[in-house]
């Protein structure tokens, strides 16, 4: 067996990590990106080889000592679109997107820059949970004390289906 050092660039981790005794039969390794990042590839030096350099989980083998490094890249932020119904537009309401993940919460103001009826904001990719909130326009702070209405808990899609429409029904507020 040979000593293979398994490590990760910033914005992710690997399992197992550090110095590992690996031989020709190999050991499974996994790259784990941080929130908002994706795995790109493995690079190797010395006598280390990997079965598939672009799979986050692969097998490393060794014919001499070496290193294996996982590389990560930031996932670009996503623009989210909201088309509110007529009820939500009454009272000069303003709209915000409330997002959260394990690291915390954030409020994003939404704007209709081209007056198309679609309100937008750009959300970092590390957030996956979303609630649209109709806010009191007289109160500029984004918090739950200033909301008029809200949607239920939504999931920000990982594909390009990022437009949410509130249905037009009589007396529908939420």
What can you see in these coordinates?
The protein has 174 residues and is mainly β. Strands 1, 2, 3, 4, 5 and 6 form a 6-stranded mixed beta sheet that branches. A hairpin with a 2-residue loop joins strand 8 and strand 9. It starts with a strand and ends in a 9-residue tail after the last strand. The relative contact order is 0.17. The model has no long low-confidence stretch (mean pLDDT 92).
Task: Give a brief description.
The chain is an all-beta fold. The protein has one helix and 14 strands; from the N terminus they run E-E-E-E-E-E-E-H-E-E-E-E-E-E-E. The termini are far apart.
- Tertiary shape: elongated
Tally of individual helices: 1
Which whole number gives the mean pLDDT? 92
Note the main sheet. Answer: 6 strands, mixed
Unreliable stretches: none
Rg for CA atoms: 23 Å
Q: Approximately what portion of the residues adopt beta-strand conformation?
A: over 45%
Structural class: mainly beta
Tell me the helix content. under 10%
* Elements, N to C (H/E): EEEEEEEHEEEEEEE
**Number of strand segments:** 14
Cα-to-Cα separation, first versus last residue: 62 Å
């Amino acid at each position: 067996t040979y000593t293979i050092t398994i490590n990760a660039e910033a914005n992710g981790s690997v399992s197992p990590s550090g110095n590992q005794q690996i031989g020709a039969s190999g050991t499974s390794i996994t790259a784990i990106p941080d929130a908002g990042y994706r795995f790109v590839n493995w690079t190797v030096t010395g006598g280390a080889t990997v079965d598939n350099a672009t799979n986050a989980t692969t097998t490393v083998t060794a014919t001499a000592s070496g290193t294996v490094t996982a590389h990560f890249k930031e996932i670009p932020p996503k623009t989210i679109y909201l088309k509110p119904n007529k009820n939500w537009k009454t009272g000069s309401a303003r709209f915000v997107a409330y997002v959260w993940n394990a690291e915390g919460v954030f409020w994003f103001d939404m704007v209709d820059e081209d007056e198309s009826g679609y309100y937008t904001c750009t959300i970092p990719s590390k957030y996956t949970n979303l609630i649209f909130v109709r806010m009191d326009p007289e109160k500029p702070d984004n918090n739950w004390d200033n909301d008029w209405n809200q949607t239920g808990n939504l999931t920000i899609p990982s594909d390009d289906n990022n437009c949410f429409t509130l249905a037009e029904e009589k007396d529908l507020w939420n």
